[in-house]
Amino acid sequence: MRGRLYFATSQLIWAPGVSFFSFFQAHPFMITWWESVDDEAQNVSLLIKARDGFTDKLLRRSTPGDWILTVVDGPYGSASNAADYGSVVMFATGIGIAAQIPYIKALIRDYREHKARTKRISLFWQLDHTGEFDWVADWMDQLLEEDKDYILHITLFRPPSKSADRLCKHGQHNRVSEIPGTMNPDEILYNECSLRAGRLLVTVSTNSSLRDQVRRLIQKGMDEGIKLLELEFQPMEKSVVWTTKAPV
Q: Are 83 and 199 in contact (CB under 8 A)?
């Protein structure tokens, strides 16, 4: 991209240059990552899962050296308020991680610059397949490197396998955990409430089943110090359920 661009969380990119009819299609994409110099964006990255129709055409147009007309819009929602919460719990499934990464990036930056009250960020990501982590591995490494105060904690729920059927911890101070099986939002929220510092923000970019579970839990049993934020992008995948036997 050329020109002076400044990016924030919850901004969207439209790609009307993919085809003639794309001018009439409401098909925005979440900006997942950006690199800046003096707060001016030098490049941005989108995380897109190709399907039939528009995204398939976009994939076929995405060749090195090719230019596509794009429009930047937003930001939307209450993204700037995330830094006002002492703790932030993030739920993602599959491609939903694309909506959570910008919030993590902004919160770590704001904390480093003494602009955020956030003392704890907990990301819970349910992978639909193990290869999904490769999409964002470099960005995750960079976020953990930038998090000098160790406020970010990542838990991955992955398909169980014969070679890895136990809890595994990685990274400095064991801030990345891998668990075989599906996440239990009830157990997660109960534990995070006991660890929270001040008000708690829960952000969600998940399949509809998990999103409904989180919404019901917060509406029924949580106090006024907890807020639910359903992010602008929500994945369309169906729920994925894995079963695994506990190791003996």
A: no
